[in-house]
Amino acid sequence: MKPLTLFAPIACAALLAACAGQYPPDAGYYATPASAVAPAGRSCFRPSEVTNFSAPNERTVYLRAGARTYQMQLMGTCPNIDWSMHLGIQATGSPWICQGIDATIVAPTQIGPQRCPVTGIRQLSPQEVAALPPRDRP
User: Is the pTM for the entire model greater than 0.85?
Assistant: First the structure.
């Protein structure tokens, strides 16, 4: 019996030592993974940051993500998106949306969700947002 009772503390100590070098000493328990940091020098957002949208036509969507406003151009038309009350945004390949190929708009329809690939995205300046008609501002 004694070898088993001695084995448990040694096994626990070895396990703790193996895990000790995984995080920098000052990172703390809640270290930020690399995928949570936006690419340097780019205007990117995460789908969870979007708070509002507007769609003035079937090829354009304006999004509000935090304090920024973005314009998305859709591949082809996305019927009835300009009447939709809800949208989904699906990021592809990364949790960040930085360019058109990073996102797909998912719009509800009577027969199920419609996926509308995004071909272009850009952040609008405050002047461009102010120039939008009030009904088109997200």
Answer: no
What domain range includes position 107? 47-136
40-99, pLDDT tens digit by residue? Answer: 556 889 999 999 999 999 999 999 999 999 999 999 888 888 887 888 899 988 889 988
Q: How many domains does the chain have?
A: 1
DSSP state letters, 34-82: GGGSPPTTS--B-GGGEEEEEEEETTEEEEEETTEEEEEEESS--TTGG
Q: Is the dihedral of CA 47, 57, 129, 100 positive or negative?
A: positive
In this model, does residue 26 exceed pLDDT 50?
Answer: no
Burial of 35 (0-12, 13-18, 19+ CB in 10 A): exposed
Residue 14 inside a domain? The answer is: no
